[in-house]
Amino acid sequence: MLTAAENERVTRVGPGTPCGNLLRRYWLPACLSSELPEPDGAPLRLRLLGEDLIAFRDSDGQLGLVDAYCPHRRAPLFFARNEECGLRCVYHGWKFDRAGNCVDMPSEPAGTTLQARVKLVAYPCFEQGGVVWAYMGPKDKEPPHPDYEWMRAPDSQRHVSKTFEGCNYLQGLEGGLDTAHSSFAHNNNLTSKNELRLRDKAPRIEVERTDYGYTYSSHRSLGDDGFYVRAYHYFMPTGQQRGHVRTWDGKMTAVPRNFGHIWVPIDDVTTWVYNIHYNCDPHVQLTPELIAEHEAEFGRAPEDIIAGTFRLKRNRSNDYMIDRAAQKTKTFTGIAGVNTQDFALQENMVQGNMEPICDRSKEFLGTSDKAIVAMRRLLLEAIAVVEAGGDPRGLNPASHRSVRAWDNIVPTGADWQSVLAPDLMTQW
User: Fold this and answer.
1) In principle, which of 52, 85, 218, 231 could form an S-S bond with 179, CB 3.0–4.6 Å?
2) Which of 105, 125, 141 is the endpoint of a domain?
3) Does 26 reside within a domain?
């Protein structure tokens, strides 16, 4: 468990907080590219790491991410005119480019020196993998762009969505690194005999630190059939990648797809979850049908989302539409959707709803929590490194660009890393 003080250090993300300072040293997803579909389109409201921001695509198609409020009288720039390579505040006409420079001040006398002194907070952005990325840290510490395999996959071989989660980011991240819970919370067929995660519900966990975070594996015994091994990755500060979860019918066919999430704090108590699904094999197509099937399984299909938002229809206000009859006979939770099951548990790890941050000082951890403990230690160590003026782990894209996750059956007595090695290297 963490002490109350340690819990505060790794959960508070606003400006000037220890964890907020750490997270600002990385490139983080700010929005989906599809949310800024055209030059001079409508500005987009964003809240990231406790800061209110506006994203926009200017006349040249270039991205901007700036303070949500005009520095003149704090009028909201959501209502601004996006025109001629800048945002023009509709209150008094002051105009700012994507770098935050004031390029026009029509309400002031010509030649005013005020214009040169006014600056709008602006953060660097780049676009890749269907995602707009932002860097919100010190300018002299800006790292290279991340280079995950899914970012290099062709658009036709990748699908990225996002969902709103009503809790602190760490509750979601810990769920993504907890392989043991999938044998229970995600048991969606109580009568199944083929689900590998149900044949051994107490996986043995191995964690190996890396320059990007760590790789970890879960090992489930299948008796005479060997071991089912799932090899994951934790990418600092808030990313996870995993292979395809498989069933067993006497043999197992490789499914060349990877999945993962990045948990991006909106503020201390809410999170954007970016959901990544991509094809690992250039010779196999990721079809629209496969994407739709996966999104439906996870409870993220269009019919599962409140129109015009990224919020699930099954949510805290309606107890995630839990079906108690189905819980008795069909699924372990009675809740439809794999991610919805996660949200139901992670959003409610608190007493009351005033401030949904889990009190980790009250935990009793077990051996299956080894990956979670390792992640917390890495975050606390990285926070201390940043406080001392150093560079945290995971900034160099060379550390993560050639790795991927995988899972498969490994014969008893075999070295799982050797068996899975060909599939743990990128192809894109």
Assistant:
1) 218
2) 141
3) no
